[in-house]
C-alpha cells in the first residue's frame, strides 16, 4: 500500500512540475510572442484602449492614433495613405496587423518589456497608457520620388533604396499600394468588406513586393554575383576573355543559350568579362560560371544574403539560389534564371555591398524608439551583415558597373547623372511561355549606386510584365527601371 501511495505521490508531483513549467512558458517565456501574434484578438482590442505610439518619417507622424469617443477609445489614422503602406502596414481590430504595426507592436502599444516600469508608474499616477513612437530611417523625399516614378509609369513592381554604409532603408515602395485607412475604422462590416475587396484584386496591393510575395527571377543583375565570385576566387578578372559565339549549346541539353541581342557579345571572336557586364551578355557569363565549381555562385549569393533569414524588422522572404545539379543548370542559373529568385531588398543589398567595399550592412528600417515623454528608449546602430568579397574585388566589379553607365555600349547609360559617377546594371528576366505559345512578359530590373567614389545610395528597381514582345524585346527592357533608379538616386543626392 505504501509503495502505491509513493508512486501516486511522485506522479502527482511530476504533474505539478509539468504544469508549473507549462504555465511559466506561457506567462513568461512565450508572453511577448503571444501578445505580438497577429491572431491574438485580445491584443488588438486592448490596443484600441491605448493611445498607440506614432510611426514617424523625418520626425512627422505617418501613422497615429486619435480619440473616437466610443468603446474603442482610439482609431488608427494614416496621413499619407498608400505612400507608406508597405512600411507602416495596417492596424485593424477585425483584420489584425501588418508591416511595422505588427513588427513593432509591443513598442507602439506600450506592452514591451522595456516599458514595464513606465506602465507601473503611469498606473500609480493615474496616467492613461501610451505607446512609444517609432522613428523610421525612411527619407520622405526619396520615398515620394520612388513612388511617383513608379506611378507615372503605371507599372507594378517595387523599389528599395539603402544607405550602403549603414544599411538604413531610405525608401521602400511596392506598387500598387493600398490605403491603410480603409482597414483601420471602427465599423467591422466596412473593414471586412474593404479587406475582401483588396484581397481579391488581381494586382494584389496587399502584397509587399519589395520584401515578400512570389519573388522574381533576377535576370542579368545576378551576373554581378557571378563576377564577384569569379574575381574573388581568382578565376577571372575584368579583362579575362571567353569564346564569343552567338549561340551556346548547353551540356547534356538540346537547349541553346543566346545573348539578349541575339548576336555575339561585341564584334570580336572573344568577349571579356567586362564586356559581358557592360553589354549584359549571357554566353560569356555562362561560360565563366561553367568553368568554376558548380556551387561557387550560389555560395557567393548566400554570402550576400540569399537563402538567409533577414528582418528589418519586417520579415524579408529569403531569396533563392539553389545549388545546380549539372552544367546546364549552372549556365542557366548564372544569368538569373531557372530556380534563382530574389526580392528587390536582396538585390539592393548586393549593390550596397559592392558599393561599400565588399561589406554588406544589415538593412534597418528603424532609427529609434521614442517614449511618450520624448526620451530615446532605444537607438539602432549600424550592424555588419557579411563580408562576401574583398575591397579589391568590389573595386573591380564597381569599375565594370560604372562603364555600364558611362560608355555608349552600356545598357545602364540611362542612369547617368550629370556631374556624378554612377555604377549600374540592368536585368531582363524571362518568365516562360504562355499556354498559347507566346512569351510571358519579362521582369525588368535595375540596380546601382552613386556616387562611385563616396556611395550615398544603392537602389534596386523591379518592374513586372514590362518587356518582351510589347517592347520589341529591347528599349523598354532597359529604360523603364533605369529611369526610376536614376530619380531615386537623384532624390538622395539632392539632400
TrEMBL record:
Stretches for region Disordered: 235-266
Domain of life (superkingdom): Bacteria
GO cellular component: plasma membrane
Stored InterPro entries: Beta-lactam/transpept, Beta-lactam/transpept-like, PBP_dimer_sf, PBPA_dimer, PCN-bd_Tpept
A Pfam family that the UniProt record links to this protein: PBP_dimer_2
Annotated signal sequence range: none
Enzyme class: transferase
Key word Glycosyltransferase present: yes
SUPFAM superfamilies: beta-lactamase/transpeptidase-like, Penicillin binding protein dimerisation domain
Every Penicillin-binding protein transpeptidase domain range: 157-471
Protein's GO biological process: cell wall organization
Gene Ontology terms, MF aspect: glycosyltransferase activity; penicillin binding; peptidoglycan L,D-transpeptidase activity
UniProtKB keywords: Glycosyltransferase, Transferase
Positions of the Penicillin binding protein A dimerisation domain: 52-134
EC number: 2.4.1.129
PANTHER family associated with the record: PENICILLIN-BINDING PROTEIN 4B, PEPTIDOGLYCAN D,D-TRANSPEPTIDASE
Protein name: Peptidoglycan glycosyltransferase
Amino acid at each position: 500500500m505504501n509503495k502505491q501511495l509513493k508512486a501516486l505521490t511522485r506522479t502527482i508531483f511530476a504533474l505539478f512540475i509539468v504544469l508549473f513549467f507549462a504555465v511559466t512558458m506561457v506567462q513568461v517565456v512565450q508572453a511577448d510572442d503571444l501578445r505580438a501574434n497577429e491572431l491574438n484578438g485580445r491584443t488588438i482590442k486592448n490596443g484600441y484602449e491605448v493611445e498607440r505610439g506614432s510611426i514617424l518619417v523625418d520626425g512627422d507622424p505617418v501613422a497615429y492614433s486619435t480619440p473616437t469617443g466610443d468603446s474603442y477609445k482610439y482609431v488608427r489614422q494614416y496621413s499619407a495613405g498608400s505612400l507608406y503602406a508597405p512600411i507602416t502596414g495596417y492596424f485593424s481590430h477585425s483584420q489584425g496587423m501588418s508591416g511595422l504595426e505588427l513588427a513593432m507592436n509591443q513598442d507602439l502599444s506600450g506592452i514591451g518589456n522595456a516599458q514595464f516600469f513606465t506602465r507601473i508608474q503611469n498606473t500609480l499616477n493615474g496616467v492613461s497608457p501610451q505607446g512609444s513612437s517609432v522613428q523610421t530611417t525612411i527619407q520622405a523625399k526619396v520615398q515620394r520620388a520612388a513612388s511617383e516614378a513608379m506611378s507615372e509609369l503605371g507599372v507594378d513592381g517595387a523599389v528599395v533604396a539603402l544607405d550602403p554604409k549603414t544599411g538604413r532603408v531610405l525608401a521602400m515602395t511596392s506598387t500598387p499600394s493600398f490605403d491603410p485607412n480603409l482597414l483601420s475604422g471602427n465599423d467591422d462590416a466596412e473593414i471586412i468588406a474593404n479587406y475582401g475587396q483588396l484581397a481579391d484584386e488581381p494586382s494584389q496591393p496587399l502584397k509587399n513586393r519589395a520584401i515578400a510575395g512570389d519573388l522574381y527571377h533576377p535576370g542579368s543583375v545576378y551576373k554581378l554575383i557571378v563576377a564577384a565570385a569569379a574575381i574573388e576566387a581568382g578565376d577571372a578578372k575584368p579583362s579575362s576573355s571567353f569564346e564569343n559565339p552567338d549561340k551556346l549549346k548547353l551540356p547534356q541539353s538540346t537547349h541553346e543559350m543566346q545573348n539578349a541581342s541575339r548576336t555575339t557579345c561585341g564584334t570580336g571572336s572573344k568577349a571579356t568579362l567586362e564586356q559581358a557586364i557592360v553589354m549584359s551578355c549571357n554566353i560569356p557569363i555562362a561560360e565563366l560560371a561553367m568553368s568554376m565549381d558548380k556551387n561557387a555562385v550560389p555560395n557567393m549569393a548566400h554570402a550576400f544574403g540569399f537563402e538567409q533569414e533577414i528582418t528589418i524588422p519586417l520579415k524579408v522572404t529569403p531569396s533563392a539560389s539553389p545549388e545546380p545539379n549539372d552544367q546546364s543548370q549552372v549556365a542557366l542559373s548564372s544569368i538569373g534564371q531557372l530556380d534563382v529568385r530574389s526580392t528587390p531588398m536582396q538585390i539592393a543589398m548586393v549593390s550596397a555591398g559592392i558599393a561599400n567595399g565588399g561589406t554588406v550592412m544589415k538593412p534597418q528600417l528603424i532609427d529609434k524608439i521614442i517614449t511618450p515623454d520624448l526620451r530615446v528608449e532605444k537607438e539602432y546602430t549600424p550592424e555588419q551583415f557579411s563580408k562576401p568579397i574583398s575591397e579589391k574585388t568590389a573595386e573591380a566589379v564597381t569599375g565594370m558597373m560604372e562603364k555600364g553607365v558611362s560608355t555608349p555600349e552600356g545598357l545602364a547609360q540611362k542612369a547617368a547623372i550629370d556631374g556624378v559617377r554612377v555604377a549600374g546594371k540592368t536585368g531582363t528576366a524571362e518568365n516562360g511561355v504562355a499556354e498559347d505559345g507566346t512569351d510571358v512578359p519579362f521582369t525588368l530590373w535595375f540596380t546601382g549606386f552613386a556616387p562611385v567614389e563616396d556611395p550615398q545610395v544603392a537602389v534596386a528597381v523591379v518592374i513586372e510584365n514590362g518587356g518582351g514582345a510589347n517592347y520589341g524585346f529591347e528599349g523598354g527592357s532597359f529604360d523603364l527601371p533605369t529611369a526610376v533608379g536614376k530619380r531615386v538616386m537623384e532624390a538622395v543626392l539632392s539632400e
